[in-house]
Request: fold
Amino acid sequence: MTQILALLTDSYRELNSRKLFWITMLLSGLVVGVFAAFGLNDKGISFLWWQFDTPLLSAKTIEPRKFYIFAFANLGIPIWLTWAAMILALISTSSIFPDFIAGGAIELTLSKPISRMRLFLVKYVLGLLFVVLQVGVFSLACFLVIGVRGESWEPSLFLAVPIVTLVFSYLFGVCVLVGMMTRSTIAALLATLLFWLFLWGLNTTDGIFVLQRETSIVNHERAQKRVERQELASRRRIEQLAAAGEPVPTADTLPANVRDELEAVNAFLAPARKEAADAEESAAFWKRWTRLIVGAKTVLPKTVDTTALLDRWLLTPEDKALFSPERGESGDPDGKVRFGQPDREVQKRAEEAVRGRTVYWVIGTSLGFEALVVLVAGWLFCRRDF
Amino acid sequence: MVTHAAETGWAIDLTNVSKTYRGKVRALRGIDTRVRAGEIFGLLGPNGAGKSTLVKILMTVIRPTTASGTMLGQRVGHKPTLARVGYLPEHHRFPEYLTGAQVIDYYGALAGMPRAQRRKRRDELLEIVGMKDWADTKVRGYSKGMRQRVGIAQAIVNNPDLVVLDEPTDGVDPVGRRDIRAILVRLKEQGKTVFLNSHLLSELEMVCDRVAILVQGTVASQGTIDELTCGKIRYDIEIVGGDEAAAQRSLAAAAGSTPHTIARNTLSLATTDAAVVQPVIDALRAGGVIIRSIRPVRPSLEDLFMEAVTDPTTGVALPPGARKGAGREGS
Reply:
C-alpha cells in the first residue's frame, strides 16, 4: 500500500507540474462560465445581460432543468470533454509511459521490491488521473450551475466522470502500447490520434449504414403496403368485371409479361411489385453491411457510443425530442424515402436501433479491447530489458 | 537452495551469469564472482565490458540469459530481497518536478518504508550528503554533483544491507568524491556491503577491499589488490644515461632466468626477492654503470587494469564493447 500511495502522490505531482493540466482546467472553467452565463426565462434565452426572445425555446416550452441537462449532455460532454479536453489530455499524458521507461528513470523504479506487472498496472490506472480530475471538476461546476440556475440538483451528472474516463482509457491503452513499443511520445500520440480518427470514421460509417438500412426497411414496408393496395384494387376490378359479365382474365389467357390475373387488370401493380422487390433487396444489402460494420465495432472500442450512454441516461427520448428540429415526413406517408431526405419514421427507428444497443455491448466489448491492449503492453513491460 | 548471507559470508554469490542481447551481442559470458558481506567490492572494466549489465541483472532491470547464485541469501531476481538493497544507476534521471527531499522520500516509499521512518531517515541523509540547504529545491535546478549526492542518499534511504553504486562519483568534484568515499567507508563500518562500479581506478584503489576486472563479458581477474599484485612486484634500477648497451649486457649476464627489461634508463627485474637484485647491481657497477636509484615497485590498479585489457599476444588494447556471436566461452 505504501508503494501504491507513493506512485499516486508522484502521479499527482507529475500532473501538477504539467502546464497543460492547468491550461485545460482553466479552459474547463471558461466553458462552465459560458454555460452559467446562459439563462432560460419566459421570453426566451438570456446570455449575461442580453435577452434573446425565442418563443420556441423558453421556460414556457422547456423546463430550465432539462435545458441545462441537455446543454451538459449534448454540448459540454460530447464537444468539450470528449473532443477538445480529450485531445489536450492525450497530449499531456502521452509522455507518461515513454518518460517512465526512459533510461535512467526506469532502473530506479524496477530495482524496488514491487512486481513489474503491478507497477505497470498501477502506473496505467494513475495515468487516468488527469481525466478523472478534469471531468470531476467540470461535472462539479456544472452540478452547481444547474442546481443554482436550473433549480434542480442532479447527482446523475457525475456519471460523466466514469463515462468520459472510460472513453479516455480506451485511447490511453493504445497510447501506452505504442509508447511501450516505440518509447516515443510523438509516435504514441500520433498513433492514438490516428486510431481515434479511424474509430470516428467507423462510427460515422455505422451511423450512415444504420440510416440506410432503416431507410431501405421503411421503403420496403411502404412498397409492400402499396402492393397490397394495388392487389386489393385489382381484386375489386376483377369482381366488377365478373359482375358486369365481362371477360375475366385467367391464368390461361395471360400475356407473356404478366405474372398473374391481378396484374392483368391493373397496370400499377407490376411496377409496385418491382419496387417492393428492389426495396427488399436493398434492405437485405444494407442489413448485411450494417452487420459487418457492427461486427467490426464489436471488437473495437466504442468511443461515441460510450459517450452517448450519458445522453441516454440523462435524457429520455421525449426530452430529446423537445430539442430536435421538426423532422418532416415525406409528403406521402407511404411514399418512397430517399437517403438524406428527412423522414421522422426513419429517424426514429435509426435512433432506436442505436439506443437499443446494450450497455454490455457498448462498454463490455470496449473494455475487452482495452484489457487486451493493456495486457500486451504490460507483457512487453514485464519482458523487456531496460 | 536459498541460504542466509550471514551463514555463507557472501552478500553476492554468482555463478555462470550470462546475457546475450538480441542481435547475438554477448554482453556477459559466464560470470562467476563472489562479494563478501561487509566488504567494499569494486567492479572495473573498459566501456562495454558488461559491468552495468551485471549490475542491472542483480537489480532485476535486465533478465539474464543464464544465472544461478544468490544475492543476500536469495536467488538473483527475488523481488522482496530488493527491499534490503540500495541502488544508484549510472546516468540516473530523477523526476524533475520533485525536490531533493521528495526524491529520497519517494524512493524510500517504493522500497516499502513506512512514512515516519522515511521522514526521519530523509532528514538524516540530507545532512550526511550535504544537501540539507537544497532539500526543497527542485531537482531540475541541481548540478550533476548535487544530483549524485541525492542519488546516493536515495540509495541508502532504506538502510540496505547491500548498496550497489554504478559510477557514484561521475561528475562529482574532488570534494564531493572525498565525501562519497567517506560515506562508503561509513557504510562498511556499519557492516553494509558495497558493490561499486567505477571507471575511476584510483578511487576504487582507495576504498575497495576486493576488485574484479571485467573484460569483454568475462572476469579477467579478481581478488584483493594484494592478491592481484602478488608476484607482480618488480625492482626498478634507474641508471644515469650513458652506455645502455653495456647495461643491457651486464643485466643479461647477471639476471639469469629472471625476466627483465630495460627502457629509458630504467632496468626492471620481475622479482620480489631482493637477493636476486644484488648480482645485477654488482655487474652494473663492475661495468662502470652509475646507479641513480633502486626501488621495489608494486603495480597500481591501473597497471593491473591495463594488463587485463591488453591482448597478451599482440600487446594491443582489446577493442571496447561486448563481443558478437553465440559461440561457447573461451572462444
Summary: The first helix of chain B runs from residue 5 to 8. Chain B has a mean pLDDT of 85.
